[in-house]
Design a protein that fits this description.
The complex is a heterodimer of chains A (347) and B (499). Helix content of chain A is 69%, strand content 3%. Chain A is rod-shaped. The two termini of chain A are 29 Å apart. With 347 residues, chain A is mainly alpha-helical. Chain A contains 10 helices and 4 strands, in the order ααααββαααββααα. In chain B, the strands form 5 sheets. Chain B has a 4-stranded antiparallel β-sheet. In chain B, strands 7-8-9 form a 3-stranded antiparallel β-sheet. Chain B has a two-stranded antiparallel sheet with strand order 1-2. The relative contact order of chain B is 0.14. Classes of the chains: A mainly alpha (347), B alpha+beta (499). Chains A and B meet through helix 1, helix 2, helix 3, strand 3 and helix 9 of A and helix 3, helix 10 and helix 11 of B.
Chain lengths: 347, 499
């Protein structure tokens, strides 16, 4: 029990409490206007790192979402390219089946072969933002050499093989003398290897076998491109080239029959490979979109957590402010009254 | 009993009342003294020959005063720590999430800068052929390196300021001890001769509170009125009327490898790593803890991060054999990986051969060979979208690393985890110092109030005493005038008497 109080502590008590309340008022006003603690780091203390980690995770997920958008563009371009290649191959296959090795339509088929080959090459050389999407990791270089360009090592290789096998060029009128059996043997033994292995890499493609991989969520990494070295494209190139550039207009019926049936086989297998590729790309596309959705949900949850850490309860703060205001007003009037309360006034 | 002795007694009464009034007016003047003024009381004794003021005493309360001293010291420690930690907090900045976008933080902490850099690297890995993303990743890397540099220099600044603060504190301790000596001598002499030493005692108490600001002390009062002072760790500061010399050699420039000097009292180190009797409170203790513990630990954490970055980005030979060489992150002029992490935070830079602002090629981030040695090139095929190295770097960043235990926040964790643990550590220190500081300042104000109530002046009380004195004075004056008139009567009667 205090029975004696010094004049100084009587007045300084009020002074100190007013100072304290004013600084509390200032920080409460700040909190009410920003909705966050006035000094988040100090309030959170050891939890501050958690707050930073959560924010970092949100921005990481945002980065992955952004890169997923870029990857999606590449994949949908790839998907379109594959679909158009498949459609072309299918329509050529249909014509071949309809004509069933009859030489009368050989000119039309040859022309289609040329345009399909050109289309294949330009499609495989598609670029998105300057990146050749079928180039594997070597996206800086056109993956497929133009068959009709100069120089065209792929065309020279075909020409040389033909010359070596039959002793004449494809345009020579003598091609009509080639028998079905020797044409079949040429197609199987000399022509086919030009589209495989090291010959393919040397004459046709500068693409890398290594496809691009991307991290699409915190845990998933998927392959997100198709290389021009895929067997489907090699088969297509082989089928188109044999129809376009083996002098099919002038071949004997049996030799033409050999070319047509070999091309049909290659196209069938290429179409089924293309379907597989399209399915694979589609699977990746759907996992990207579900990963992106998942991450957006995750970001919402994380933002809520960050909010929980940083935010003040506005009701609590505004109550605090009005309490403080009342208290400060009382202190002011008390100070004024205490000033009157002195014996000196009555002497 | 004669009339003249009655006059003498009345006279002594007047003297006593005047003396009491003089004490009273001293009290009234001191009522609102912000330094220590204790209530003085005139002790009046009555004798057969009148009354007199035998002595003047002051109100004291040793226990409350001792608790004020210790609260003052503890508060000074926390204030010093708190203000240093505020400066260190600049390395972290505002950790609130930015209101403008849903992601990312405004903070300048290494943790946030590291996360920004990781994200830039991740974006670049998704499109390795994109040179502008490469530049963005490198520029995020140099922001991170500069962030570490700035943080390290802030730490050194805090240590330099603490060191300068210690020097100032030592100076003021020495000057306070000199003042104390003269006042103490005055009190001993005054006590021996019976003079009024109460004002000198107030002055001595004031000096003690100022001393307690600087260094935690305990005091012992001797029989002769003199006082001895010891530090809270038991080292003698003042004894036998003689102050001990406090010495300190300041260090003007701090780097991670510099250790601050100790403060010595008579050759006994009381702060610093070598202290045998370390003091636990006062500004001196707070500054020492800031300079020798907190800053050093925080610096060790930043050095650990810098070392972790350099090793995560180190390049290994892709053909032939050789040592790993520094890659994206290095120190100026380094030709090999650093052996120790000490001081790396202040030295870490982005390798000039990658940094476009120094004429470097940011694409080396994808290709490797940053050290300039062609057998360290990873992208030997020169593929524009070569991802192998970037994926490896991202994997390295998320791999747990080993950190020195002097960082005090764990030794085996990922770089990102370590960086946020460091933020937690610093904010926890700051939060703790701030709540301690609030608590201690409440204690100081409680102790001040208690002391003021125990020994201070109440004006109303003094005023009512003044009324009493006024009444006594007029009564005594009346007495004297009565005695005077009695003398007059006596003398007049004698004159009129026929001889």
């Amino acid at each position: 029990m205090i029975s004696y109080i010094s004049t100084q502590s009587l007045s300084s008590a009020m002074r100190q409490s007013i100072l304290q309340m004013q600084s509390q008022l200032a920080s409460a006003e700040n909190e009410l206007s920003t909705g966050n603690y006035a000094d988040i780091g100090q309030t959170l203390g050891a939890q501050a790192g958690e707050n930073i980690s959560l924010q970092n995770q949100i921005s990481y997920l945002q980065t992955l979402t952004n890169t997923n958008n870029i990857v999606s563009t590449r994949l949908s371009t790839t998907q379109n390219a594959l679909a158009s290649l498949q459609a072309n191959a299918q329509s050529l296959l249909n014509s071949l089946i309809e004509n069933n090795g009859v030489t009368s339509n050989a000119n039309a088929i040859q022309a289609t072969g040329v345009s399909d080959l050109q289309n294949l090459i330009s499609t495989l050389n598609t670029s998105v933002n300057g990146d050749y999407i079928f180039g594997g990791t070597n996206t800086g270089q056109q993956p497929i050499t133009d068959y009709y360009g100069t120089p065209a090592p792929n065309k020279s290789a075909v020409d040389n093989a033909f010359l070596a096998a039959f002793g004449m060029t494809q345009t020579s009128a003598g091609v009509s003398t080639i028998s079905g059996a020797s044409m079949q043997s040429f197609l199987d033994n000399q022509f086919a290897p030009l589209f495989q292995g090291t010959n393919w890499m040397a004459d046709w493609s500068s693409a890398s076998n290594q496809t691009l991989t991307n991290q699409i969520s915190e845990t998933e990494t998927v392959s997100t491109s198709v290389s021009a070295n895929n067997a489907a494209f090699q088969n297509l190139a082989q089928a188109y080239t044999m129809l376009a550039d083996l002098g099919t207009q002038n071949l004997s019926s049996s030799a033409y029959q050999a070319v047509s049936s070999t091309a049909q086989g290659l196209l069938t297998s290429a179409i089924s490979s293309l379907t597989n590729l399209q399915t694979n790309v589609g699977v990746v596309q759907s996992s990207i979109s579900s990963a992106t959705n998942q991450m957006s949900l995750q970001m919402n949850v994380l933002s809520t957590q960050v909010n929980n850490l940083e935010s003040v309860n506005p009701y609590e703060v505004s109550t605090q402010i009005s309490d403080l205001q009342t208290q400060i007003e009382i202190s002011y009037s008390l100070t004024a009254q205490l000033q009157q309360l002195s014996l000196v006034k009555y002497l | 009993m004669s009339l003249s002795s009655a006059a003498l007694i009345a006279q002594s009464g007047l003297n006593t009342i005047t003396a009491q009034t003089s004490v009273l007016s001293r009290n009234i003047t001191g009522a609102n003294d912000s330094s220590i003024y204790s209530l003085k009381t005139a002790n009046v004794i009555s004798t057969p020959y009148g009354s007199q003021v035998a002595s003047i005493t002051r109100a004291t309360n040793q226990a409350v005063f001792a608790s004020l001293l210790s609260a003052t010291s503890a508060n000074a420690t926390q204030t010093a720590l708190s203000s240093g930690l505020e400066t260190l907090n600049q390395t972290i900045g505002n950790i609130s999430s930015s209101s403008s976008s849903a992601s990312g933080s405004n903070s300048t902490s290494p943790a946030t800068l590291l996360s920004n850099f990781t994200n830039a690297l991740q974006s670049y890995e998704a499109s390795p052929s994109n040179a502008s993303l490469a530049s963005a990743a490198v520029s995020a890397a140099s922001t991170l390196a500069q962030g570490l540099n700035t943080a390290a220099s802030t730490i050194n600044q805090v240590r330099e300021q603490a060191d300068a603060g210690i020097a100032t504190s030592v100076q003021s301790i020495n000057s306070l001890l000199a003042q104390f000596q003269s006042v103490n001598t005055q009190i001993i002499q005054g006590t021996a001769s019976g003079a009024d030493v109460t004002d000198a005692q107030d002055t001595r108490d004031n000096i003690l509170t100022q001393l307690a600001q600087q260094i935690g002390i305990t005091t012992v009062t001797n029989a002769n009125g003199g006082m001895s002072i010891y530090t809270d760790s038991g080292v003698t500061l003042f004894q036998g009327g003689l102050p001990r010399t406090v010495t300190f050699t300041p260090t003007s420039t701090y780097t991670a490898s510099v250790t601050g000097n100790a403060v010595y009292i008579d050759g006994v180190p009381i702060i610093g790593p070598s202290a045998t009797m370390p003091i636990s409170s006062g500004t001196l203790a707070g500054l020492a803890s800031l300079r020798d513990n907190i800053s050093v630990t925080y610096e060790a954490q930043l050095d650990g991060m810098a070392g972790g970055l350099i090793s995560a980005f180190a390049e290994s030979p892709q053909s032939g054999s050789g040592p790993n060489l520094p890659g994206l992150f290095t120190t100026s002029g380094a030709t090999s990986l650093p052996g120790s992490v000490t001081g790396l935070a202040s030295q870490i830079i982005v390798n000039a051969s990658v940094d476009p602002s120094h004429g470097g090629n940011p694409l080396l981030l994808r290709d490797g060979g940053i050290s300039g040695n062609s057998s360290y090139v990873y992208n030997t095929a020169g593929d524009a979208s070569y991802q192998g190295r970037l994926s490896q770097l991202i994997a390295n960043l998320s791999m747990p690393q080993t950190f020195s235990s002097s960082g005090e926040i764990g030794t085996n964790m990922t770089l990102g985890g370590y960086a946020s643990a460091s933020v937690s550590w610093l904010e926890a220190q700051r939060s703790n110092a701030s709540s301690q500081s609030t608590y201690q300042s409440t204690l100081v104000s409680t102790a001040t109030t208690a002391l003021s109530n125990a020994t201070g002046v109440n004006l109303d009380n003094q005023m009512s005493q003044m009324l009493d004195l006024e009444n006594s004075y007029s009564a005594t004056a009346k007495l004297i005038s009565t005695i005077d008139s009695m003398f007059n009567t006596l003398l007049t009667d004698f004159q009129s008497m026929p001889l």
